[in-house]
Every structure is written in structure tokens, then in C-alpha cells.
Amino acid sequence: MSRKPDHTDTTSLENFLRPIVEQFGCDLEEADVTPAGRRRLLRVLVDRDGGISLDDVADVTRAISKALDADDIMGDGAYTLEVSSPGVDRPLTLPRHWRRNVRRLVAVTLNSGGKVTGRIKSASEEAAELDVNGKARTIAYADVAKAKVQIEFNRAAGNDTEPSISGGETPADGTVEEN
């Protein structure tokens, strides 16, 4: 019995999904297929400037599902489709990731081995400007080995003043900044 393999090439899958996702003004951040028992899990991460709502995710999910039903890119094996937005723990790897996190605190590990923690003030296609302890510092993306947004429990939502990076007391109401 000849059967198509249940393995789907990630590059082909992303090329297939990208135009579908872009119809909704979103960026395809990642598409990944992993085994899940007898099935496979197709996880698709989408995002856009200004964030993405649950309604947006539902619209994208319906469009992807319809396109997958009409094509055999996933092969014959059963799969589950999961569409969501990337979590805050996603590494900042592209200029748009930096741009979408302006005003957020980031920890950066440089290719040289140094580490920098600062708040993103602006982001261009080549570099980000951070506020590091009150001083501006430009970090070229080419110099970044790893960068991640830091979760802040001591910063009220919408608060653009600078909290102490070294810590401080958590507000009694427990408010946190949401992206």
C-alpha cells in the first residue's frame, strides 16, 4: 500500500500559509507540525502591529482551515489545527518584533557576550534604541545573540514613566502592563 508520508516540509507550509494570513493584515510568525499521538499538531502563530484579537484569530483560522481542506499539503494523515498569537516569551528576532514592543523592558545578550537590560524607545529596520538606566543606547540587531521581553509586575498598564529596573515594590492592586 502506497501512502503519502505524514511529514510536511515547514518551508513549503509557510509559503502556502503566508498569503492566506496576509489577507487579514497579519504576519505569519511561525508554522510548525509536531507529532501528537496518532495525529499531528499544526501550530500557526500570527501577529500584527497593534496586536491581534480573538476575532482576528478566528477569521484567520477559518481561512487556513478552508485552504488546507482544498489542498493536500498536509498529506493523508490526521492533524489538528491550532492558530494563535506568539506569547510574550517569544525571542525578538526581527525588526517588527522590536517595533511591536516599544516601551517594553528587554534583556539583550550581545554576540560579544555582554548583557544589556533596557526599555525599547524606538526601533528601525537595523537597530533599536534602548533606555538603559536613563541613558540612550543603540543596539544593532546584527550585534544581538538573544533578546527577550521581560515580564514586569510592578508597572501599571499605560504607565510611560520609568520604574526601577532593579526592582521595587509591586503595587497593592497587582496591576500589570499588557501588550
Q: What can be said about this structure in brief?
A:
The chain contains 3 helices and 8 strands, in the order H-E-E-H-E-H-E-E-E-E-E. With 179 residues, it is an alpha+beta fold. A hairpin with a 2-residue loop joins strand 6 (127-132) and strand 7 (135-140).
Description:
Required for maturation of 30S ribosomal subunits. The protein is of the alpha+beta class. Helix content is 20%, strand content 32%. A five-stranded antiparallel beta sheet has the order 7-6-5-4-8. It has a three-stranded mixed beta sheet with strand order 1-2-3, covered by helices on one side. It is elongated and about 55 Å long.
**Euclidean distance between termini CA atoms:** 51 Å
Q: What composes the largest sheet?
A: 5 strands, antiparallel
Strand content: 25-35%
CATH architecture of the largest domain: Roll
Give the overall silhouette.
elongated
Structural class: alpha+beta
Averaging pLDDT over every residue, what do you get?
84
Uncertain residue ranges: 1-6, 160-179
**Radius of gyration over C-alpha positions, nearest whole angstrom:** 20 Å
CATH class of the largest domain: Mainly Beta
Q: How many helices in DSSP terms?
A: 3
Order of SSEs, N→C?
Answer: HEEHEHEEEEE
